[in-house]
Design a protein that fits this description.
This protein is mainly alpha-helical. It has one domain. 79% of the residues lie in helices and 0% in strands. The protein is built from 13 helices and no strands.
């Protein structure tokens, strides 16, 4: 019965994600002149693609540095190994449903270094929380500079409240579980022990020597993402500057939280278009930017992730075993 329920839940989640991606793609390309779109993609020059590739590589390195910093509370792991495992997770997120790559990278790390899988999962949750905190910080920044179009103000402020309450709630629960189970060590077994180890990973946020540098890397990552949009400023007749690109990046970050097909297909494109058009970019050129930036990120994450699987000697059979272990 339980297996049937979880199988049905996974099927419905995946079906909704596919539907969301199809709907987002339809909204992205609705009313777009395909000839103009193809022309705009074709006129993007090779140097722009080279810079875009370098920025994607820089983003990948920043992400690895951040995870290594967060993992130091558990174990000091070489940066190159962290980068490889991180990229395996990113690759699998792009090709498998339900963001299974996040769980699999935790399992790979657990098996290679005999770590607590629950604590690594808590560490990954902390990673996502730092992303959200960095986004909130950037939202406040662009609000102060009056960069956000008025029509987005209410939506973004509402999203900030949800994120704030969510982060606060997770931190309070994590601290409560840690304190309670630490005082009653006999309770720290079974599912309560699991929660204790997860909360221990999340509570790394209270360790300023860990969280502050990691937060700095999170900010650098989002600014790097915004810079990939900024690369296309010369062809947008000056409609894009760094602050505008930050707003577009924030909208994309909000958009990709919607469950969608692997690789954020559709949701990335739609919210990138919405942001760029709000700043006066032609729809055809906005879609061209969305298609190219998404493709380059998708391409390099998959190439480096696939190579990382080879270097770590992880086969697709291993991936299937890990998927079963994840109970997803």
């Amino acid at each position: 019965m339980d297996n049937t329920f979880f199988t049905l839940r996974k099927f419905l989640s995946f079906a909704f994600a596919i539907f969301a991606s199809i709907l987002a793609l339809w909204l992205t390309f609705y009313g777009v002149d395909w000839n103009e779109l193809i022309y705009n993609i074709a006129k993007i020059q090779i140097p722009t693609l080279i810079y875009l590739s370098l920025l994607n590589g820089f983003f990948i390195v920043l992400r690895a540095f951040r995870w290594q910093i967060l993992l130091r509370r558990i174990k000091n792991i070489p940066l190159f190994t962290v980068l490889q495992i991180s990229q395996v997770g990113a690759f699998l997120n792009n090709v498998l449903p339900l963001r299974i790559g996040e769980v699999i990278r935790a399992i790979v790390l657990k098996k290679r270094y005999q770590l607590s899988g629950a604590e690594v999962i808590g560490n990954i949750i902390l990673e996502r929380m730092l992303d959200l905190i960095a986004i909130v910080f950037l939202i406040y920044f662009v609000l102060i500079t009056n960069t956000i179009p008025i029509k987005f103000n209410a939506t973004i402020q509402y999203a900030m409240k949800i994120v704030g309450f969510g982060i606060g709630g997770i931190l309070v629960i994590a601290m409560f579980m840690k304190v309670k189970l630490k005082k009653n060590t006999e309770l720290a077994v079974g599912w309560k022990g699991l929660l204790f180890r997860v909360s221990n990973g999340i509570n790394g946020l209270y360790d300023w020597k860990t969280s502050l540098p990691a937060f700095g890397f999170s900010l650098a990552m989002w600014i790097t993402s915004a810079t990939t949009i900024l690369l296309f400023s010369p062809l947008s007749h000056g409609s894009i500057n760094l602050l505008n690109a930050l707003v577009v990046t924030i909208l994309i970050a909000i958009g990709v939280t919607i469950p969608a097909a692997p690789g954020f297909v559709g949701t990335y494109h739609l919210f990138c278009k919405i942001g760029l058009v709000a700043f006066g970019v032609d729809p055809e050129y906005a879609v061209a930017i969305a298609v190219v930036t998404h493709f380059m990120s998708f391409f390099w994450n998959n190439v480096i992730g696939f190579i990382s699987m080879f270097l770590l000697k992880i086969s697709w059979q291993d991936i299937n075993i890990f998927r079963k272990e994840s109970d997803l």
